């Protein structure tokens, strides 16, 4: 299970990089499962304060990530469009704002506070 600390708003999730226990009122989990489409098991906890590489996420992992981030209603758009981790990493701002049929406010927050940082994290890890 992936442990994330919710800020109680639509802002980016803050990851707990230390080994300290999170208080029970801010602890949420987003299950990351193996899927038939070849996704890798990503049930490992957050390592070094960062999420597992989204390139290995299945569609359900992407949906669970956004649900844990507080975007329950909008997460289904990723399911409907079959957005897995690799697709998520390829998405542009315009894709999120117009291609998912999500209201503009949540779409902007999802892209700026979640999609873009995940893309940056992936690039930093996989670029020499």
With strands numbered from the N-terminus, the spatial order across the biggest sheet is 1-2
Q: Given the C-alpha coordinates, what overall shape results? A: globular
Class by helix and strand content?
mainly alpha
H-E string? EEHHHHH
**Helicity range of the residues?**
40-55%
Number of helices: 5
Strand content: 5-15%
Largest sheet: 2 strands, antiparallel
Nearest-integer average pLDDT: 74
Which ranges are low-confidence, i.e. pLDDT below 50, for 5 or more consecutive residues?
1-45
State the total count of DSSP E strands: 2
Tell me the distance between the termini: 29 Å
CA-based gyration radius: 14 Å
Explain the overall architecture:
It is a single chain. This protein is mostly helical and 128 residues long. The protein contains five helices and two strands. A two-stranded antiparallel ribbon has the order 1-2. Helix 1 (59-68) runs antiparallel to helix 2 (72-80) and helix 4 packs antiparallel against helix 5 (104-126). The chain is globular, with a radius of gyration of 14 Å. Mean pLDDT is 74; it is low at 1-45.
In brief:
The chain has 128 residues and is mainly alpha-helical. The chain has helices at residues 59-68, 72-80, 85-90, 93-99, 104-126, and strands spanning 2-5, 27-30.
Secondary structure layout plus pairing:
Layout: E1 2-5, E2 27-30, H1 59-68, H2 72-80, H3 85-90, H4 93-99, H5 104-126
Antiparallel strand pairs: 1-2
């Amino acid at each position: 299970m992936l442990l994330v600390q919710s800020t109680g708003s639509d802002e980016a999730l803050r990851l707990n990089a230390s080994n300290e226990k999170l208080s029970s009122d801010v602890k949420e989990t987003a299950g990351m499962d193996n899927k038939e489409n070849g996704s890798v098991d990503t049930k490992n906890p957050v390592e070094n304060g960062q999420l597992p590489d989204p390139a290995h996420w299945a569609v359900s992992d992407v949906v669970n990530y956004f649900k844990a981030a507080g975007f329950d209603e909008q997460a289904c758009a990723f399911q409907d469009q079959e957005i897995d981790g690799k697709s998520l990493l390829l998405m542009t701002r315009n894709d999120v704002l117009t291609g998912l049929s999500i209201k503009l406010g949540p779409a902007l927050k999802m892209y700026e506070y979640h999609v873009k940082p995940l893309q940056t994290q992936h690039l930093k890890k996989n670029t020499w």
